[in-house]
Amino acid sequence: MTTKIPAPRIFGVSSDQFVRSIASREDEYSRWYTDVVYKAQLADWSLVHGCMVIRPYGYALWENMQRLLDRRFKDTGHQNAYFPLLIPESLLAKEAEHVEGFAPEVAWVTRGGQDDLDERLAIRPTSEAIIGETYSKWVQSWRDLPILINQWCNVMRWEKVTRFFLRTTEFLWQEGHTVHRTHEEAREEVMRMLGVYQDFVENELAIPVIPGQKTENERFAGALDTFSIEAMMGDGKALQAATSHDLGQHFSKVFDIKFQDMDKEVRFAWTTSWGASTRLIGALIMVHGDERGLKLPPNVAPYQVVIVPVWSNDEQQRQVNEAVDGLQKQLASFRVHYDARDEYRPGWKYNEWDLRGVPLRLEIGPRDLAAGQVQLVRRDELGEDGKPVRRGVPLDGAGAVVGDALCAIQKDMLAAARSFLEVNTVVAGSFAELQEGIAARKFVWAPWCGRTECELTVKDKTGGTIRNIPFERHKAGGPCVNCGEPADGERSPVIFARAY
Description:
alpha+beta, BirA Bifunctional Protein, domain 2, Rossmann fold, Translation Initiation Factor IF3, 5-stranded mixed beta sheet, 15 helices, about 25% strand
């Protein structure tokens, strides 16, 4: 049940109180997550159940992610387009398995103005139907292929239990939909785009992932095969970060996407779809956040650097502002924010920008000017005393130092997340070990016989699901941890975990 919590009134609150107002990440992880979303000003709830307002800071984060991902799509030959939000019920119903998979989540439009509609219109939960119908008009010959299209849009799924970014009634995403002459070409597309997602999530979001194939029980409704990248959150639970689907010829046959091939024979095309959403913002929060709040990788942070001045009189203010003008020119290639607000003390600002996850802080005051330097503070680094580490760096040439520091932060955040994943991954050779690992919020490598019955039994008894069948299967030999039958050599071992 979603509860609307009023935004905190923080004007005049001391810096210590401001930080303590965040729930403990260690003791109250769920509340900590919500506190960070509110107080880092990422999002707020609207009056519509499960529909969030993405605030400017949160939307700037999404725009940076979108820009970096969109560049990768275009570099692999894809173009952007836009398809309708509303889908006629008769069109959606053409694919029974697909509509059954989304039926509980579909929102319907039944009236237009003052008139009842002749046919209900679904608000898209995904776009395979409307895009498939459109492609059937565009594809006539093998010369029309491949079609490589992506769209950035919103979708709606009527969720009963919602949580900022992770599960909301309306959310933003991208969905790629492609059409190919042969299955080999379609399969190459599926794996290429999964690799694009892995590259983006690891190298831009600094989140390590495990690529692999979904089980039959977990694959996308109507797909021949589904592949995913799975990430470990800060509480040990899994998050499906992105998916890529081999749709085979299933949707082509339903929506009549066929073409005359080189040999003059008419054949059904092979299609794919793939997508990622704003839930990646939730992943960023949970993977990198700490007791002080949000911690953002430089590559996607709305502000990569915040400059906080220190002064006590008008003359000092004039001198600092003059120095900052020159400093900002050095930092023109970075996303920089100069926090010159008079109504807040420097210490309060330090804590606010730590809470909001800015990767690098530069502090500059009269003493720094006298020494010809600026204080550099990394958000991801604490000293042995648990306090931020300050380093004096020359004011002249600060731009190069900042660039090196941001690169180091990006690299170190990925390394820290990878270390956390490795430490919290275990191998199980028996059901008791599997149960123990899942209860401890670990990723558990375990052998599996390949039967859905065993998969569902584990879920019922432990709450853990098979996240995917990893491409690199080098752990956990032996018989199935549930039934004791021989493991499926092609689909074992697998990773079990609780998931969002």
